[in-house]
Design goal:
Elements (H helix, E strand, L loop, with lengths): L6 E2 L3 E2 L15 H19 L6 H14 L20 H22 L6 H13 L7 E3 L1 H12 L1 E4 L2 E6 L4 E7 L5 H5 L6 E5 L2 E2 L5 H8 L6 E7 L7 E6 L1 E4 L3 E6 L4 E6 L6 H14 L4 E5 L8 H9 L7 E6 L7 E4 L11 E5 L6 H11 L4 E4 L7 E9 L2 E11 L23 E3 L6 E3 L8 E2 L3 E3 L1 H6 L8 H12 L11 H13 L7 H15 L6 H21 L1 H17 L1 H11 L1 H11 L1 H6 L8 H8 L5 E3 L1
Parallel strand pairs: 13-14, 14-17, 17-18, 18-23
Antiparallel strand pairs: 1-2, 3-20, 4-11, 5-6, 6-7, 7-8, 7-9, 9-10, 12-13, 15-16, 15-20, 19-20, 21-22, 24-25
Helix pairs in contact: 1-3, 1-4, 2-3, 2-4, 8-9, 9-10, 12-16, 13-16, 14-15, 16-17
Length: 628
């Protein structure tokens, strides 16, 4: 029951409510509730991989409803007098019948009117908060984005965008490839979109802009473009098409016959794309394989199984799932003779490798088929299924956890607020060589990867906090200032000097952590009239300037790499930039050196327990920012 306050239904709620002076034409709250919120609650209660009581779900939904009200609105739900000891579904219906009455009162009488559909979405958001981060309620825009990532195609223009400051514009961050409708119409990477069909982008976020540019294939959209080197804006009309994205970001055969393929996403048919790439490299003489899954956030489960099938013999277990709502465990095994069973294999992973990436890496590691190099993966060891709610929305719900062939779950149990639900890391054994592996915290690589590390200067140059990315602006202008640049370009000390001058002209001022503290101290001294501290502060600032100059020197290699990548991408496209990166990437070099040395490669398979070095390094973790 709800405790007494300003009005009654069958229960009482402390809530600021006034009778409205005019009539609102409101959508029927009952329809929104029955069509959307109630089905979501039922699906969560029946299928979510952890059992949630009806009271827990009702309380969560109520918190969401009241979050839509003014800050003075308060409530308390007391379930002591509500029916107990009945079937859970009946109990759920009872709790949500009460919640429905509350929603109707809020919709009818709350002084600050909230549209009924918005109110119901707040209720759903409340329930989502008690679930894991991967269970989400998807409506039109997010549903479109989800389909793009998993299916790899959409009706659009074919470039990535990002908001940039100080222009407050939508930047063409990169073209997907040279044959997109945007590329053919003359759009260039580095262009700033000032308007879409005459509507200014100044107040748009990236999602708003994407919504306006996507549409039915065959329909036109006009973009007003600000281009480096042009004094006046351009207007370019682009006809939307169904844009297909490749899952293969880069592939190369090195001179030592090591083949390299970077897989960006586990979209539909990506296993066929990878198969084709590897066969093409084999035809050229490939003897070893490096598969790069860094930054790959996953996708379709069946594609992960099909990719493992390329490297493991038929009949090998790849992954199995188990959930509360399913009586049978679902097991996925390889079914075809392995096309690439003999080549030495290394898989690269990092802290952004998740889901399907972890399935592949876990299966390869558990069967001792290859080595994993990099850093510990995300630990997204859960299985989501998409449940239609109505014609405009779907629920992506975690229904089960998946386990690698050795039996380990690599899931880091998290809540929406990033709270880690700690579980003891159990010990498991690999299935061929009987090495110890542990579950419960992502895939721990066999070999720790060599990574580039940037400090606070790197963070600020990239505009991670203010979206004022110095590399982006420098690269879009570089081709104008250097019209003879070619795809063999490599940054050097002159490029770095030019970049620093450019950043300074844009009023970039690196503020180290020490300088930030000194500025605070200086303000305090001025406020308290501590004149005697002025000279001391001046000396400290001079010392800090010297330290900050060292930060530029320490980051020089990293900055030069990024300048080369960005200039090549803006001038010649992503493929040119990725081709350069494959040759320069430290972790790829590390993998190449290891896999080409038979003795070193085999040595790692004799390590009794995987990940012991990682545990030691985690205790002395460097807080610097990693990149690759």
């Amino acid at each position: 029951m709800f405790k007494k306050s300003f009005f009654f239904i069958q229960c009482c709620i402390p809530l600021i409510i006034f009778a409205p002076t005019g009539a609102f034409t409101q959508p029927a709250i009952e329809k929104e509730y029955k069509d959307v919120l109630w089905p979501v609650a039922q699906q969560i209660h029946q299928y979510y991989f952890e059992e949630l009581t009806p009271d827990t779900l009702m309380q969560a939904a109520a918190r969401g409803l009241f979050a839509a009200m003014d800050p003075a609105s308060k409530y308390e739900i007391v379930t002591d007098n509500m029916p107990k000891g009945v079937h859970p579904r009946k109990q759920l219906a009872n709790r949500f019948t009460t919640l429905m009455q509350v929603a109707k009162q809020l919709d009818d009488k709350a002084f600050y009117y909230t549209p009924s559909d918005t109110l119901i979405r707040f209720g759903i958001a409340g329930m989502m908060q008690v679930l894991d981060p991967y269970s989400v309620f998807l409506e039109t825009r997010n549903l479109d984005n989800f389909n793009i990532q998993t299916q790899g195609k959409y009706g659009g223009l074919g470039f990535r965008i990002q908001v940039v400051y100080p222009d407050s514009a939508i930047a063409v961050w990169s073209l997907l490839h040279s044959e997109t409708p945007a590329a053919r119409a003359g759009i260039k990477s580095g262009d700033l979109i000032l308007a879409i069909d005459g509507e200014s982008t100044r107040e748009m976020n990236a999602g708003d802009a994407a919504d306006r540019m996507r549409g039915e294939p065959g329909t036109p959209v006009t973009l007003t473009i600000k281009r480096a080197g042009n004094k006046t804006p351009l207007e370019i009309s682009v006809v939307r098409e169904e844009v297909t994205m490749s899952s293969i970001a880069a592939q190369k055969l090195f001179s030592d016959k090591t083949g390299y393929v970077k897989l960006d996403r586990f979209q539909r048919d990506c296993s066929l794309e990878l198969r084709k790439s590897l066969l093409a490299l084999r035809d050229k003489g490939m003897k070893r394989i490096i598969l790069d899954l860094r930054g790959n956030g996953g996708g379709f489960l069946n594609e992960a199984v099909n990719i493992a099938d390329l490297f493991l013999e038929a009949g090998k277990l790849v992954v199995y799932t188990a959930g509360r709502a399913f009586s049978d465990t679902t097991r996925y095994s390889t079914s075809n003779p392995a096309l690439f069973s003999e080549e030495p294999l290394i898989i690269l992973v990092n802290s952004q490798s998740a889901s399907a990436s972890e399935i592949v890496a876990g299966a390869i590691q558990d069967w001792d088929r290859g080595l994993i190099i990099g850093s510990t993966t995300v630990g997204k060891g859960s299985v989501q299924q998409v449940i239609p709610i109505d014609e405009h929305s779907e629920l992506k719900l975690t229904m089960a956890a998946w386990h690698t062939p050795s039996g380990r779950s690599i899931d880091k149990r998290m809540r929406k607020d990033s709270t880690l639900v700690r579980e003891q890391a159990a010990e498991f054994r690999t299935l061929t060589l009987n090495r110890i592996v542990r579950g419960g915290g992502g895939i721990t690589p066999d070999v720790e990867g060599t990574v580039r590390k940037g400090n606070r200067l790197w963070w600020q140059l990239n505009g991670f906090s203010d979206l004022n990315n110095q590399f982006f602006y420098f690269a879009r202008q570089y081709g104008v200032n250097h019209p003879n640049v070619n795809d063999g370009f490599r940054s050097n000390s002159e490029t770095l000097s030019e970049f620093r001058s450019f950043a300074k002209s844009r009023e970039f001022d690196y503020v180290s952590e020490a300088q930030a503290h000194i500025e605070e101290l200086n303000e305090m001294a001025e406020e308290d009239e501590y004149v005697e501290l002025e000279e001391t502060i001046k000396v400290l600032i001079e010392k800090i300037d010297q330290v900050e100059e060292r930060h530029w020197e320490e980051n020089e290699e990293l900055i030069l790499w990024r300048l080369t990548y960005e200039i090549l991408e803006k001038s010649f496209g992503v493929e040119s930039a990725e081709s350069f990166n494959v040759d320069e990437d430290k972790q790829i070099k590390q993998a190449r050196d290891l896999i080409a040395n038979d003795t070193e490669y085999e040595k790692w398979f004799s390590v009794a327990e995987i990940g012991l070095d990682f545990e030691k390094n985690d205790e002395n973790a460097n807080p610097a920012i990693e990149t690759h």
